[in-house]
Amino acid sequence: MTAFFALITSLLWGLADFGGGLLTRRTPALTVVVVSQAIAAAVLGAIVVATGGWGEAGPRLWFAFAAGLVGPIALLSFYKALALGPMGVVSPLATLSVAVPVSVGLVLGERPGLLQVAGIAVAVTGVVLAGGPQLRGAPVQRQTILLTLIAALGFGTVFALITEASTTVTGLFLALFVQRLTNVAVGGAALAVSVRRGGRAVPEGGFPWASLPALAFVGLADVAANGTYAVAAQHGPVTVAAVLASLYPVVTALAARGFLAERLRAIQAAGAGLALLGTLLLATG
Description:
The structure is a single chain. The chain is built from twelve helices and no strands. 76% of the residues lie in helices and 0% in strands. It is globular, with a radius of gyration of 18 Å. With 285 residues, it is mostly helical.
């Protein structure tokens, strides 16, 4: 069950990143974050009311609140790093996020078996290579490295926090709702500051209403991924769940290949193969 839900997580996050990347080509990144998360919050609010999730309110919601504070910072740092480039360095480096939940699992006493350790090493190597690392000394600004490391730390922290935010399904809905409301508040405040400093909230042609379905997909896929990751981590070793969930760059690369006809470099294809091998080792270990 852990492997299944963690792989679903990587699929959803990979597709959400792909959709978000396309949307930010036409719409400011902050607007994409705020609108997509607001749609997800509205849907989650309806689910919480329908399932009676308010009865699950308790101290654990502070973990969801903290995840909501960290998430937008990590996402915006990641987008900014991608804008500065090169993407072939930023994307693989961001996969260091897996170090946070894996470290938490080890501190809590998890001890993966030899086959699982091999699977973790192979899968992480595959994810890094699938991101298409540039090996020929592409110039990288220090700011790019710093922003990417901030994003990786933030993503990994959200991984760890959301696992602790609930212990039941209805409680998980409430925790994700709180997280999304916090995301919208933080992202909205950042957007307001950006506009006040002369930035744009919408493209020159006005708000892209035709993009609402895509924005909804990005927000809902992201929140669903958080949910499936929490389930995966609660039903098995966090070390395994975190590594399998971090395969999302492979999904993003394959989506770009399928929808945008982007050709995978040989190193990316090799990385995807290693990621699959690592997945099999983890699932069988």
